[in-house]
């Protein structure tokens, strides 16, 4: 009798627990998706699109809902089931995809008054003849904490805010979206900008480890080893990889001694100087003689526009924010970080480092405002939902740890270069297209070159990485000639890798 009673109570407890769990699952928000019809004219041809924007439930590996994941999806109306699909995201590390969306990829784009400040609204939102929607369907992803994305259930922000956490959540979204759309057996691409390139290297391996091989990865404004952008103690690589971009900036602003035949020829000379003279000098440290130091400082002046005396005072090492402030010190201007063609008012002429980024100031308002106008009016997103372009909370904290980057509980690097290397060596058909702006001081082109040259790839496999260059900054699409080149480069890449 006692055993039967215990069995009854146990079964009752299980039923109550199951019912409670089911009730809790039913109470979790399902997400909202808003649909609309869009179109874009590319090369004189109209492409009709089925568009949807909003959120869907993101599930963990055990199908437990963990987040509302925000996205915008453009699918060609009545398209072929084998039409390629591109998953795109920005960086930050925590910004939504609004930059790429209204800047270059979507059916509409906002016109920027490059290379200076765009006047306040009304902004010009036009048909985007440079969109990739003639080549592929497009999914723009907003990581949790941006756009309409947020954690649900037992999940917390920190479950998504970190290098590994982010790779996992984006990878989960892509896998589940492919299942939702029945697109597993179709050419698949990742497209990331800025931190999104570091993310895409990790996601490509994450998906590959789950049996989902992508055809290609497109990187705009790439960085694969974040620590080299930080000018950490004893890290001379940071100074070396930034110098060619300092030189390109000085070349653009007519601050160099000899501009040569072209920007490309000038930068080839700068690369040789950096590798053969500057690197050796920094490696010597205080063993460098005064004669050697003076001779090197003079060459640094000739290439960068900063005075020999300044380079000597800086011990031959100038961080980027110091360069922004110093190049136009005599005229009271400061130089852009996202695009060094831009200049703005120097708020403090005595400051050692720049206080603001003129390019960022020039880009943000037109792109963010134009996108929100398009999102709520054209894409029909619900006005009861607040769209977050980027996380600005003072409590925001990103976990920079990544598998292989931490040894003895010490952060040795911030890099997904090993992920990219492993993915390529295990899948010799994986291709990368890396698009670099010469005037991008946020993610410098020579830094990517340095990373690629240290992957340990054999000559044949290294051919799977294509490097393209633009006379623009971080947002290549702000520069009209570059946006056309970008369109052509991506089209050619998709054509070559989707067959």
UniProtKB/TrEMBL annotation:
Alphabetical UniProt keywords: Carboxypeptidase, Hydrolase, Protease, Signal
BP terms from Gene Ontology: proteolysis
InterPro entries xref list: AB_hydrolase_fold, Peptidase_S10
Domain of life: Bacteria
Any one GO molecular-function label of the UniProt entry: serine-type carboxypeptidase activity
Gene3D superfamilies in the cross-refs: alpha/beta hydrolase
Signal peptide bounds: 1-19
Alphabetical list of SUPFAM superfamilies matching this protein: alpha/beta-Hydrolases (SSF53474)
Protein name per its UniProtKB record: Carboxypeptidase C (Cathepsin A)
